[in-house]
Amino acid sequence: MSEITQPRILLIGTGDTKADELLFMSECIARAGGRTIMMDISVLGDPPYQPAHDKHAVAAAAETTIAAIASSG
Fold first, then answer.
1. pTM of the model
2. Which of 4, 5, 16, 40 is in the most buried spot, having the most CB atoms within 10 Å?
């Protein structure tokens, strides 16, 4: 029989404007036995928590920068 491990959930959101909602969802996932991995996709502000994947890493993965995204309108 295989060992059951703690499920990992990638929670993606704009932490600059939806931090309360994202943190609430993260708490619910933890209470249910899961582990949340946070990814911030905000453009303007910074979240009040430290995401595992910040907006700069997300932009770099798309071969761009937050400044270029913000200036694109």
1. 0.87
2. 40
Residue 1 lies in a domain: no
Q: CA-based diameter of the chain, in Å?
A: 54
Dihedral sign of CA atoms 52, 55, 57, 62 in order: positive
Domain total of the chain: 1
What are the pLDDT digits (tens) for 17-56? Answer: 999 999 999 999 999 999 999 999 999 899 999 999 999 9
Q: Which domain holds residue 32?
A: 8-71
d(CA 46, CA 55): 8
Distance CA 25, CA 2 (A): 28
Give the up-direction half-sphere exposure of residue 37: CA atoms within 13 A in the CB hemisphere. 7
At 38, is the secondary structure helix, strand, or coil?
strand
